[in-house]
Protein backbone atom coordinates (compact mmCIF):
# COMPACT_ATOMS: atom_id res chain seq x y z
CA UNK A 1 0.00 0.00 0.00
CA UNK A 2 1.27 3.46 -0.90
CA UNK A 3 0.24 6.53 1.07
CA UNK A 4 1.00 10.07 -0.03
CA UNK A 5 2.61 11.92 2.86
CA UNK A 6 3.89 15.46 2.61
CA UNK A 7 5.88 16.93 -0.24
CA UNK A 8 8.48 15.93 -2.75
CA UNK A 9 11.85 17.66 -2.83
CA UNK A 10 11.43 21.18 -4.23
CA UNK A 11 7.70 20.84 -3.66
CA UNK A 12 7.51 23.21 -0.69
CA UNK A 13 8.21 23.30 3.05
CA UNK A 14 11.97 22.89 2.65
CA UNK A 15 14.66 23.29 5.29
CA UNK A 16 18.16 24.59 4.68
CA UNK A 17 20.99 22.02 4.48
CA UNK A 18 22.30 23.45 7.77
CA UNK A 19 19.02 22.72 9.56
CA UNK A 20 18.66 19.31 7.91
CA UNK A 21 22.08 18.38 9.26
CA UNK A 22 21.21 19.64 12.74
CA UNK A 23 17.91 17.77 13.10
CA UNK A 24 19.49 14.46 12.07
CA UNK A 25 20.87 14.17 15.59
CA UNK A 26 17.46 14.73 17.20
CA UNK A 27 15.98 11.55 18.70
CA UNK A 28 13.74 13.35 21.18
CA UNK A 29 11.99 16.48 19.94
CA UNK A 30 9.88 19.26 21.38
CA UNK A 31 8.54 21.06 18.32
CA UNK A 32 6.50 24.20 17.85
CA UNK A 33 5.70 26.55 15.01
CA UNK A 34 5.05 30.20 14.20
CA UNK A 35 3.62 31.33 10.87
CA UNK A 36 2.82 34.77 9.49
CA UNK A 37 4.24 36.42 12.62
CA UNK A 38 1.31 35.58 14.91
CA UNK A 39 3.49 34.61 17.89
CA UNK A 40 6.95 34.94 19.42
CA UNK A 41 8.86 32.02 21.00
CA UNK A 42 7.96 31.41 24.64
CA UNK A 43 10.74 29.90 26.74
CA UNK A 44 9.91 26.60 28.48
CA UNK A 45 10.38 26.40 32.25
CA UNK A 46 11.07 23.58 34.72
CA UNK A 47 13.25 21.77 32.18
CA UNK A 48 15.64 19.27 33.77
CA UNK A 49 19.32 19.06 32.88
CA UNK A 50 18.67 15.61 31.46
CA UNK A 51 15.96 16.93 29.14
CA UNK A 52 18.13 19.82 27.99
CA UNK A 53 20.73 17.29 26.85
CA UNK A 54 18.26 14.76 25.47
CA UNK A 55 15.72 16.91 23.62
CA UNK A 56 15.99 19.18 20.62
CA UNK A 57 13.69 22.19 21.02
CA UNK A 58 12.78 23.10 17.44
CA UNK A 59 10.77 26.19 16.52
CA UNK A 60 9.60 25.94 12.90
CA UNK A 61 8.65 29.15 11.10
CA UNK A 62 8.25 30.88 7.78
CA UNK A 63 10.26 33.87 6.55
CA UNK A 64 7.57 36.37 7.59
CA UNK A 65 7.78 35.12 11.18
CA UNK A 66 11.57 35.11 11.19
CA UNK A 67 11.62 38.77 10.15
CA UNK A 68 9.04 39.62 12.81
CA UNK A 69 11.00 37.79 15.52
CA UNK A 70 14.25 39.52 14.52
CA UNK A 71 12.56 42.86 15.17
CA UNK A 72 11.12 41.86 18.54
CA UNK A 73 13.38 39.21 20.07
CA UNK A 74 17.14 38.72 20.35
CA UNK A 75 18.35 35.96 18.02
CA UNK A 76 21.76 34.44 18.66
CA UNK A 77 23.81 32.64 16.04
CA UNK A 78 26.12 29.74 16.90
CA UNK A 79 29.47 28.97 15.29
CA UNK A 80 27.83 26.71 12.70
CA UNK A 81 25.34 29.38 11.65
CA UNK A 82 22.34 28.02 13.55
CA UNK A 83 19.88 30.59 14.90
CA UNK A 84 18.59 30.44 18.47
CA UNK A 85 16.09 32.18 20.72
CA UNK A 86 16.89 30.89 24.18
CA UNK A 87 16.50 27.11 24.17
CA UNK A 88 14.69 27.11 20.82
CA UNK A 89 16.61 26.30 17.66
CA UNK A 90 14.89 28.20 14.83
CA UNK A 91 14.06 26.08 11.78
CA UNK A 92 13.13 28.08 8.70
CA UNK A 93 10.70 26.46 6.25
CA UNK A 94 11.29 27.97 2.84
CA UNK A 95 8.69 28.05 0.06
CA UNK A 96 5.52 27.48 2.13
CA UNK A 97 3.25 25.10 0.23
CA UNK A 98 0.00 26.99 0.93
CA UNK A 99 -1.42 30.50 0.75
CA UNK A 100 -3.10 30.21 4.15
CA UNK A 101 -0.75 30.50 7.19
CA UNK A 102 -2.93 28.24 9.32
CA UNK A 103 -2.67 25.50 6.72
CA UNK A 104 1.12 25.95 6.51
CA UNK A 105 1.27 25.48 10.26
CA UNK A 106 -0.13 21.96 9.90
CA UNK A 107 3.02 20.81 8.11
CA UNK A 108 5.32 20.74 11.17
CA UNK A 109 2.41 20.01 13.50
CA UNK A 110 1.15 16.84 11.84
CA UNK A 111 4.12 15.81 9.69
CA UNK A 112 6.65 16.05 12.51
CA UNK A 113 8.01 12.62 11.59
CA UNK A 114 8.64 13.78 8.01
CA UNK A 115 10.51 16.96 8.94
CA UNK A 116 12.51 15.22 11.67
CA UNK A 117 12.81 11.62 10.43
CA UNK A 118 15.37 10.55 13.05
CA UNK A 119 13.06 11.48 15.93
CA UNK A 120 11.81 8.57 18.01
CA UNK A 121 9.57 10.71 20.21
CA UNK A 122 8.06 14.14 19.73
CA UNK A 123 5.95 16.60 21.68
CA UNK A 124 4.20 19.21 19.57
CA UNK A 125 2.98 22.45 21.16
CA UNK A 126 1.33 25.33 19.34
CA UNK A 127 3.32 28.55 19.06
CA UNK A 128 1.08 30.38 21.53
CA UNK A 129 1.89 27.87 24.29
CA UNK A 130 4.58 28.09 26.97
CA UNK A 131 5.69 24.67 28.18
CA UNK A 132 5.91 24.51 31.99
CA UNK A 133 6.46 20.77 32.55
CA UNK A 134 9.62 18.78 31.89
CA UNK A 135 9.18 16.89 28.58
CA UNK A 136 10.52 13.64 30.04
CA UNK A 137 7.72 13.74 32.61
CA UNK A 138 5.22 14.28 29.78
CA UNK A 139 6.47 11.23 27.90
CA UNK A 140 6.37 9.14 31.07
CA UNK A 141 2.88 10.26 32.04
CA UNK A 142 1.16 10.09 28.66
CA UNK A 143 3.07 7.43 26.72
CA UNK A 144 5.31 5.15 28.76
CA UNK A 145 3.14 4.67 31.84
CA UNK A 146 0.19 3.33 29.83
CA UNK A 147 2.28 1.90 26.97
CA UNK A 148 0.71 4.31 24.49
CA UNK A 149 2.27 5.58 21.27
CA UNK A 150 0.02 8.60 20.64
CA UNK A 151 -1.59 10.95 23.15
CA UNK A 152 -3.74 14.02 22.65
CA UNK A 153 -6.07 16.01 24.90
CA UNK A 154 -9.84 15.84 24.79
CA UNK A 155 -11.60 18.98 23.55
CA UNK A 156 -12.97 21.13 26.34
CA UNK A 157 -16.49 21.52 24.93
CA UNK A 158 -17.19 19.09 22.07
CA UNK A 159 -17.08 15.36 21.44
CA UNK A 160 -18.77 15.19 18.04
CA UNK A 161 -17.14 16.57 14.90
CA UNK A 162 -20.53 17.96 13.91
CA UNK A 163 -20.63 20.04 17.10
CA UNK A 164 -17.10 21.25 16.44
CA UNK A 165 -18.00 22.10 12.84
CA UNK A 166 -20.96 24.16 14.03
CA UNK A 167 -18.68 26.04 16.46
CA UNK A 168 -16.14 26.66 13.69
CA UNK A 169 -18.82 28.22 11.52
CA UNK A 170 -20.11 30.44 14.32
CA UNK A 171 -16.60 31.64 15.16
CA UNK A 172 -15.68 32.16 11.48
CA UNK A 173 -12.77 29.73 11.47
CA UNK A 174 -13.28 28.88 7.80
CA UNK A 175 -15.84 29.32 5.02
CA UNK A 176 -19.17 28.04 6.33
CA UNK A 177 -20.32 26.27 3.14
CA UNK A 178 -16.98 24.49 2.83
CA UNK A 179 -17.14 23.26 6.42
CA UNK A 180 -20.63 21.92 5.66
CA UNK A 181 -19.30 20.26 2.51
CA UNK A 182 -16.58 18.49 4.50
CA UNK A 183 -19.09 17.31 7.09
CA UNK A 184 -21.41 16.03 4.36
CA UNK A 185 -18.56 13.97 2.90
CA UNK A 186 -17.83 12.46 6.30
CA UNK A 187 -21.51 11.79 6.98
CA UNK A 188 -21.93 10.20 3.54
CA UNK A 189 -19.01 7.91 4.32
CA UNK A 190 -20.64 6.71 7.52
CA UNK A 191 -19.21 8.95 10.24
CA UNK A 192 -21.72 8.96 13.09
CA UNK A 193 -21.92 11.68 15.75
CA UNK A 194 -20.03 10.74 18.89
CA UNK A 195 -21.95 8.73 21.48
CA UNK A 196 -21.10 6.63 24.52
CA UNK A 197 -21.45 3.56 22.29
CA UNK A 198 -18.19 4.47 20.56
CA UNK A 199 -14.86 3.09 21.71
CA UNK A 200 -13.30 6.55 21.90
CA UNK A 201 -13.49 9.15 24.66
CA UNK A 202 -14.27 11.77 22.04
CA UNK A 203 -13.99 12.37 18.30
CA UNK A 204 -12.65 15.89 18.83
CA UNK A 205 -9.18 16.60 20.26
CA UNK A 206 -7.60 19.73 21.63
CA UNK A 207 -4.96 19.87 18.94
CA UNK A 208 -2.53 22.32 20.55
CA UNK A 209 -0.48 19.46 22.00
CA UNK A 210 0.35 16.11 20.41
CA UNK A 211 2.59 13.54 22.11
CA UNK A 212 3.93 10.77 19.89
CA UNK A 213 6.21 7.82 19.64
CA UNK A 214 7.08 7.66 15.97
CA UNK A 215 5.99 4.10 15.29
CA UNK A 216 4.92 2.95 11.83
CA UNK A 217 1.21 3.10 12.75
CA UNK A 218 1.53 6.48 14.45
CA UNK A 219 3.28 7.84 11.37
CA UNK A 220 0.63 6.35 9.08
CA UNK A 221 -2.10 8.03 11.09
CA UNK A 222 -0.29 11.37 10.87
CA UNK A 223 0.03 11.00 7.10
CA UNK A 224 -3.66 10.20 6.66
CA UNK A 225 -4.63 13.04 9.00
CA UNK A 226 -2.50 15.50 7.06
CA UNK A 227 -4.01 14.33 3.77
CA UNK A 228 -7.45 15.35 5.06
CA UNK A 229 -6.12 18.75 6.14
CA UNK A 230 -4.52 19.17 2.73
CA UNK A 231 -7.63 18.11 0.82
CA UNK A 232 -10.37 19.91 2.77
CA UNK A 233 -10.34 22.55 5.53
CA UNK A 234 -7.21 23.23 7.63
CA UNK A 235 -9.28 22.68 10.79
CA UNK A 236 -7.50 19.53 11.96
CA UNK A 237 -9.95 18.95 14.83
CA UNK A 238 -12.65 18.21 12.27
CA UNK A 239 -10.71 15.47 10.50
CA UNK A 240 -9.01 13.73 13.45
CA UNK A 241 -12.02 11.64 14.44
CA UNK A 242 -12.81 10.81 10.82
CA UNK A 243 -9.37 9.29 10.24
CA UNK A 244 -9.70 7.30 13.48
CA UNK A 245 -13.09 6.06 12.22
CA UNK A 246 -11.72 5.03 8.82
CA UNK A 247 -8.93 3.00 10.44
CA UNK A 248 -11.67 0.96 12.15
CA UNK A 249 -10.02 0.45 15.51
CA UNK A 250 -6.51 -0.25 14.22
CA UNK A 251 -5.16 3.02 15.59
CA UNK A 252 -5.00 3.10 19.38
CA UNK A 253 -4.39 6.38 21.17
CA UNK A 254 -4.72 7.92 24.59
CA UNK A 255 -7.04 10.91 24.90
CA UNK A 256 -6.43 12.53 28.25
CA UNK A 257 -8.71 14.94 30.16
CA UNK A 258 -8.67 18.57 29.15
CA UNK A 259 -7.95 19.67 32.72
CA UNK A 260 -4.57 17.91 32.52
CA UNK A 261 -3.83 19.63 29.23
CA UNK A 262 -4.23 22.99 30.95
CA UNK A 263 -1.67 22.00 33.59
CA UNK A 264 1.10 21.48 31.02
CA UNK A 265 1.18 24.93 29.45
CA UNK A 266 0.57 28.62 29.85
CA UNK A 267 -1.52 30.02 27.02
CA UNK A 268 -0.39 33.36 25.57
CA UNK A 269 -2.42 35.55 23.21
CA UNK A 270 -1.36 35.88 19.59
CA UNK A 271 0.51 39.05 18.67
CA UNK A 272 -2.48 39.99 16.51
CA UNK A 273 -5.83 38.58 15.52
CA UNK A 274 -5.78 36.14 12.64
CA UNK A 275 -8.13 36.74 9.76
CA UNK A 276 -8.33 35.76 6.11
CA UNK A 277 -10.95 36.35 3.43
CA UNK A 278 -11.95 32.70 3.17
CA UNK A 279 -13.10 32.69 6.81
CA UNK A 280 -15.86 35.22 6.16
CA UNK A 281 -17.56 33.38 3.30
CA UNK A 282 -21.19 32.50 4.08
CA UNK A 283 -22.29 30.91 0.80
CA UNK A 284 -20.73 29.25 -2.22
CA UNK A 285 -22.08 32.05 -4.42
CA UNK A 286 -19.57 34.39 -2.79
CA UNK A 287 -16.78 32.25 -4.23
CA UNK A 288 -17.94 32.71 -7.82
CA UNK A 289 -16.86 35.40 -10.27
CA UNK A 290 -14.82 38.08 -8.54
CA UNK A 291 -15.17 36.13 -5.31
CA UNK A 292 -12.98 33.36 -6.69
CA UNK A 293 -9.97 35.37 -5.49
CA UNK A 294 -10.89 34.29 -1.95
CA UNK A 295 -10.36 30.62 -2.78
CA UNK A 296 -7.08 29.14 -1.62
CA UNK A 297 -4.92 28.50 -4.65
CA UNK A 298 -2.90 25.59 -3.26
CA UNK A 299 -4.96 24.01 -0.49
CA UNK A 300 -8.41 22.56 -0.02
CA UNK A 301 -8.51 21.37 -3.60
CA UNK A 302 -10.91 18.60 -2.60
CA UNK A 303 -13.67 21.19 -2.50
CA UNK A 304 -13.33 21.79 -6.22
CA UNK A 305 -12.93 18.16 -7.27
CA UNK A 306 -16.20 16.36 -8.12
CA UNK A 307 -17.20 14.01 -5.32
CA UNK A 308 -18.42 10.58 -6.52
CA UNK A 309 -21.46 10.54 -4.23
CA UNK A 310 -24.61 12.69 -4.21
CA UNK A 311 -24.05 15.00 -1.25
CA UNK A 312 -27.30 16.87 -1.90
CA UNK A 313 -29.14 13.99 -0.24
CA UNK A 314 -27.01 14.10 2.90
CA UNK A 315 -28.64 15.52 6.01
CA UNK A 316 -26.22 16.57 8.73
CA UNK A 317 -27.03 15.47 12.30
CA UNK A 318 -28.70 18.08 14.51
CA UNK A 319 -26.34 19.89 16.87
CA UNK A 320 -27.12 20.90 20.43
CA UNK A 321 -25.12 23.97 21.39
CA UNK A 322 -24.06 23.13 24.93
CA UNK A 323 -21.46 25.84 25.45
CA UNK A 324 -21.36 29.57 24.78
CA UNK A 325 -17.59 29.32 24.38
CA UNK A 326 -17.90 26.61 21.75
TrEMBL record:
<protein>
    <recommendedName>
        <fullName>TOD1/MUCI70 glycosyltransferase-like domain-containing protein</fullName>
    </recommendedName>
</protein>
<dbReference type="Pfam" id="PF04765">
    <property type="entry name" value="TOD1_MUCI70"/>
</dbReference>
<feature type="domain" description="TOD1/MUCI70 glycosyltransferase-like">
    <location>
        <begin position="1"/>
        <end position="270"/>
    </location>
</feature>
<dbReference type="InterPro" id="IPR006852">
    <property type="entry name" value="TOD1_MUCI70"/>
</dbReference>
<dbReference type="InterPro" id="IPR048354">
    <property type="entry name" value="TOD1_MUCI70_glycTrfase_dom"/>
</dbReference>
